[in-house]
Amino acid sequence: MTRRRFFARAAASTALAGAAAGLPLASCAQEEPGAAPPAKSRVVVIRHDSLVAGGDGLSPKRVAEVLDEAAKALAGEARAADAWARCFKPQDRLAVKVNCLGFPTSPAVAEALVQALGAMDLPAERVTLWDRTSRELRTAGYTLRSGGSGPRCYGTDALAPRGNGGYSADVFISGGTGSLISRIVTDEATALVSAAVLKDHNLAGLTGVMKNFYGAIHNPNKYHDNNCDPFIADACAQKPIRDRLRLAIVDATRPQYQGGPASRPQWQWPYGGLIVGTDPVAVDRIGCEILSRKRAGVGMKSFEAEQRPVRYLASGQALGLGAADLDRIEVVSIGRPWLDIE
Amino acid sequence: MMARTPMNRRQFLQAAGAGACAFCAARALGADAPAQAPSDAKPQAVVHDAMWFERLPDKAVRCTLCPRECVVAEVERGYCGVRENRGGDYKTLVYGALCSINIDPIEKKPLYHYLPTTTALSVATAGCNMECKFCQNWRISQYRPEQVDSLVMPPENLVRVAAARGAPTMAFTYSEPVVFYEYMHDAAAIGRKEGVGSVMISNGYIRADPMRQLCKHLTAVKVDLKAFTEEFYRDQCAGRLKPVLETLEVLADVGIHTEVVVLIIPTLNDSADEIGRMAKWLLDHVGPDVPLHFSRFHPTYRINNLPPTPVATLDRARKTAMDAGLHFVYVGNVPFHEGGHTVCPGCGKEVIRRVGFRTDVSNLKDGACRACGRKIPGVWTQEQALAFTPKAPAAPKSEQAPAAARS
After folding, report:
1. Closest-CA residue in chain B for A204?
2. Structural domain range at position B244
3. How far is the C-alpha of A288 from the C-alpha of A204, rounded, in Å?
4. Residue A8: its pLDDT value, please?
5. Which residues of chain A have pLDDT under 70?
């Protein structure tokens, strides 16, 4: 499929999606626990040849174009700027949490988001790409930046001089978790994006946009029992995170279906996609389906059979963070069908 | 007659040696500074081969140090947050990375039957293998190494500092020494050779073989027995009671001097029935002479909705335990309380008198009651401390020998 045909078809999907349902953008952050979620959570899975290269081979400019299409489909808007404006305000201070542990979120995907947001006049200088430590960011291929033009990029540890290693002074309690939270969230950000990478996890089954926030708390090591459940959901429900989370993006350009969270190239494949939504539970559910389909296709046992079921999705739904049940999720598939996995 | 040997800063820094960071040392040795994370934290992890683990497929490891037996994938850490899988090898990140270092009275540990009136060079790293909601030192125990500022001090330097400071003992304390096992093990081994004893102030959440191995080098152990129900351990500590009781049995079997502390928290672990069962268990499995301390809770960390423990509750617990047959039961964290003194079980006279951390041992003569001559169980001289050898020095059984685990 040529780029022209792809984007023409994407535009059609957007129009269809917009007509089909009102959009629950940012609704995930505003529901009360236990409240009934919107009728369906929309998740856009967009696949394109320009995403197949994955990792270092990605062009931020091309990825930004794809992200624009995803945003339009998600928001049901004809213009990308209008779609992004449904999520963010120009005066927002946006913190994009990437995952740099082992197999990282591609820097091109994060940079593409910054470029795309420029269309809605959110200056790059008001965006911070971050993870736990600057060292991890650098190792993952990110360019550290604390000033000048362009997005900021640093770890929580860069804020250590403010105390507590860069974490909040107070303990935030949420369900079974009690944690300090990165000051990038509590002190700097008005809006959050979870920009995760789709990969297998040896305990949780899946690492996606929800578990990505283990990198926002000071003590993630305490919360890996019982397949990280309900702790992943509890961490996402921490008030500073929940109140700010506006968008969830999964880098599924080259997902990893086994051996995570470390990078295992032999179990990565060129899916060539991005998964985008405002409901973190629904986005992870779709990611889980993709990994599960791939594992089945290559004859691997399911997560359940390997004693690492993805339990946290149900806990997230129970907490009102979003939809875990597939019949409560509307998948807008752009490009190659999302479950067409060799 | 509390011992206080002066030592100026210059002497300390000289003793600390090249590995010590002067800035951090000055901070850490501030007069009786409480153990807490500094505000200008910088990564200061010290990576060292871990002991006690098994290799698993796909470069995973199983940690066999504590009862959690964490299965840790590559790039991940165990529950303690200070042991990391790097390429299929397990590493400790806190070998010699001391986030707290103080000279404390030994009574502060508390150890009441171990070299009273002496001091202990007391150290900690970040990390713990439990998460007690009432932890007094949570700003180091619940932090990861890179979140605290640390003074790097190799074990041989620690021994040298203790000796130079006139402290007969090194105390591994404040956070949870089980998680910095390798450093404690090596420092204690060196200390023995250099005439410095080592005490572990611990939650006792450690597997039997590492504990036995460590006892070859330690001279005393204090175990925090958090409660006597599995529910409390599960709900308040993210741990289990049974392995702690097994540790107490190992310590009794080995014969090392052991004291037990129970922090009494109103409504959570203060029932007479629970205290009675606990005391009976200690009597049956450790013996009537184990010093037992009931300590007063103060609101902190994740338990801020309960009041400090009423002194009457501590008095009742003490009476319950003594009625059960334990000889040496104390009340702690209550200044000027009569339950802080050691009373001779034979004649009822005060043998050791304590007011705060000031200790009067004039009624203890050669480890016996001066009034009636009854032997008081404990470790009363450094010679006695250093002469300790485990009764049953069992070699590691199921796991690989520690030396083999080091690459």
Report:
1. B73
2. 97-386
3. 11
4. 61
5. 1-38, 54-55
> pLDDT over 90 for what percent of chain B?
83
DSSP calls for B154-223: -HHHHHHHHHHHT-SEEEE-SS-GGGGHHHHHHHHHHHHHHT-EEEEEE---S-HHHHHHHHTT-SEEEE
Residue A245: name the closest of A282, A194, A192, A208 by CA. Answer: A192
Residue B56's φ and ψ, nearest 5 degrees, are -120, 170
Q: Are B311 and B334 in contact (CB under 8 A)?
A: yes
Residues of A in contact with B56 (CB under 8 A): none
B125/A contact by beta carbon, under 8 A: no
Note if the bond before A230 is cis, omega within 30 degrees: yes
Which residue from A173, A218, A262 is facing B74, i.e. has the nearest CB?
A262
The last residue of a domain, from among B40, B65, B93: B93
A102, B74: Cβ pair inside 8 Å? yes
- Spatial contact of A234 and A175, defined as CB atoms under 8 Å apart: yes
pTM over 0.90: no
Query: B231: which residues sit within 8 A by CB, 6+ positions away?
Result: none
Nearest to B80 among A201, A221, A262 (CB): A221
Q: How far apart are CA B214 and CA B212, in angstroms?
A: 5
Q: How far is B129 from chain A (nearest CA, A)?
A: 9
Nearest to B116 by CA among B168, B162, B160, B163: B168
Whether residues B76 and A133 touch (CB distance < 8 A) is answered with: no
**Hey, are the CB atoms on A222 and B302 less than 8 Å from each other?**
no
pLDDT band at B39 (very low <50, low <70, confident <90, very high): very low
Domain assignment present for B4:
no
CATH code, B374: 3.20.20.70
Interface test with B, best of A221, A234, A266, A300 (most B CBs within 10 A): A221
B147 and A218: CB-CB below 8 Å? yes
Alpha helices (runs of H) in A210-298, residue ranges in sequence order? 225-228, 231-236, 239-242, 280-297
Could B146 and A260 be called an inter-chain contact, meaning their C-beta atoms sit closer than 8 Å?
no
Q: Are residues B185 and B253 in the same domain?
A: yes
- Helical H runs in A300-339? 312-318
Per-residue pLDDT reduced to its tens digit, A35-54: 555 579 999 999 999 898 76
Residue B225, domain member (yes or no): yes
3-class secondary-structure state, position B303: strand
Alpha-carbon distance A241 to A176, whole Å?
Answer: 16
Q: How far is B37 from chain A (nearest CA, A)?
A: 7
How many structural domains comprise chain B?
Answer: 2
- Closest partner residue to B148 among A165, A178, A259, by Cβ? A165
Q: How far apart are CA B181 and CA B405, in angstroms?
A: 14
